[in-house]
Amino acid sequence: MCTVYIYKTDASMSEDDMIRETERLMPLLPAWRRQKLDSITHTRARYESAVAGVLYKYAMREYRAADLSVEVGPIGKPEHIGGVPYFSISHSGEYVAIAVAESRVGLDIECKGDAGCRVTDRMFTEREKLYVHGELKCSEKHNTASTEDKKTTDNTDESGILGETSDMRFRDVWTAKEAYLKCIGCGISVPLSSFEVRGGYIQQQEQSEGSDNTPEGPVAGGKESVGEAAKEGRTDGISVYHIWTDRLDDDRYSITVCMEEDISKEIKVDIKYVLDIDRLKCL
Prior knowledge:
The protein is an alpha+beta fold. The chain is built from eight helices and eleven strands. A four-stranded mixed sheet has the order 4-5-1-11, covered by helices on one side. The protein has a three-stranded antiparallel sheet with strand order 6-10-9. Helix 1 packs parallel to helix 3. The two termini are 25 Å apart.
């Protein structure tokens, strides 16, 4: 089970208002979050990072895990000493979010598109490119391409879903990849084409001989199909990375949770919106 706490910031705030609000929030932040803000100069990003720090305190209070010690890893990923509860923070556009779970978790939210599919064509796998370009039909809402290629019908647009755009599909794939890298504690230095989002899981791609770019850790049953392993009943002890993706604000945002879990289980995600920042300030 994973709980995601979401706060929507005020898009109409002026730069001066964000600066003042950030300063008001600073005393409420844990030390590790204040250090994070010291490295941020962009006004909105700094404000969102401050909100994320207060949202972390709120989530831990709700989780009854307040006052835990946090250490920051070499790539900047914060984690509780001893692990549990695991958490992951993300913010983009107007939204700030934190995921909390008993197992390793990665969270990403994104509002940006991919003009001309330049990132897609340069960094995604061939199958993911087909999905973003609308040449594969998605069998699960907001998951990437199904394990069976299905051409679209005359009753849908090229994506197979009415109203779908390449930017929506790009955000689905991008957030899944980012969430996975956060979950395993790797930076973006890992080639995004070295693993694939497929049918609710992460699938490791074949690497060229001598390649040293494969992310460490169990990845979707290795190079075999997770779906085939499940069909054959080989689920005991196989740990995989599950993907859960949804969209917010009329599909202008994609949000993805990645969790390491037994292949026989489905991850459950509970979304909780925090509506009042003043409630956070009182912590």
